[in-house]
Write a structure and sequence with these properties.
By secondary structure, this protein is mainly α. The chain has 9 helices and no strands. It starts with 11 loop residues before the first helix and ends in a 17-residue tail after the last helix. InterPro entries: DUF6261.
């Protein structure tokens, strides 16, 4: 099973390393090439834009902090959204009805769309939170999602506080904040698809790729240097 990853744990440089190594592993994969290709190319395309950030400058401490706060906000929203979505299938009482109504509110704002740009997300989430606070807190509490919602609100507040601090160069402000979510979303989609493929067709080569990805993720999260891993082609198990 592919290790669950909270992308906000990764620095901008860690995310870059993860994307590069993931591409190397999947480019060497000899199975399901046609099925995997759209997801791999999506990562490659998003990484090209992200890569320019590192070619132009070193990420400032302020920008790094703001970028990580935006990533934490994204993770908090995904956690809340998926909890509500999963609750639509509950069989206890009317929880599925409550969850379905809440999900309609979330989908109305469409902030979960991975193709949404930074500015749209930045404006859309506060609007969504405001509506939920004004009209749906009781439903959220009854569903048992209050802690999840509080984490989302806290993440948004932390991001807003950072945004109100003294602005830095506008060009730098846009660059990494626009491109990092694209890389995170494309990697998340790729990892989900690789996991799904392995669950439905547990081929040995896919298993090795998942093993290698898990090693890289563990090393990055623990701040070890992820330079050594098994090549899925060269290190075949006999």
């Amino acid at each position: 099973m592919l290790k669950s990853l909270n992308f906000s744990q990764l620095t901008s440089f860690d995310l870059y390393d993860l994307a590069k190594i993931s591409l190397q592993l999947l480019d060497n994969c000899t199975v399901f090439k046609t099925a995997l290709n759209p997801f791999v190319e999506n990562v490659r395309d998003s990484l090209k834009s992200y890569e320019k950030t590192f070619q132009r400058r070193v990420v400032s401490a302020k920008m790094e902090r703001k970028t990580l706060l935006a990533s934490k906000r994204n993770e908090a929203f995904i956690a809340f959204y998926r909890f509500v979505e999963a609750s639509c299938h509950r069989l206890v009482g009317d929880k599925n009805i409550i969850a379905t109504r809440l999900l309609e509110v979330l989908q109305k704002h469409k902030w979960q769309n991975q193709k949404d740009g930074y500015q749209r997300k930045n404006k859309g989430l506060p609007s969504l939170i405001h509506e939920l606070e004004e009209e749906h807190v009781a439903a959220i509490e009854k569903l048992g999602a209050l802690d999840w919602f509080k984490e989302l609100v806290d993440a948004q507040v932390a991001f807003d506080v950072c945004s109100e601090e003294k602005k830095i160069d506008a060009y730098k402000e846009i660059s990494i904040r626009e491109t990092r979510p694209m890389v995170e979303d494309s990697l998340r989609t790729l990892f989900d698809f690789v996991e799904l493929l392995y669950q439905t067709t547990p081929i040995e080569e896919l298993g090795r790729i998942i093993y290698n990805l898990n090693r890289v993720i563990r090393k990055l999260v623990s701040k070890e240097t992820p330079y050594f891993y098994y090549n899925p082609v060269k290190n075949r198990v006999s």
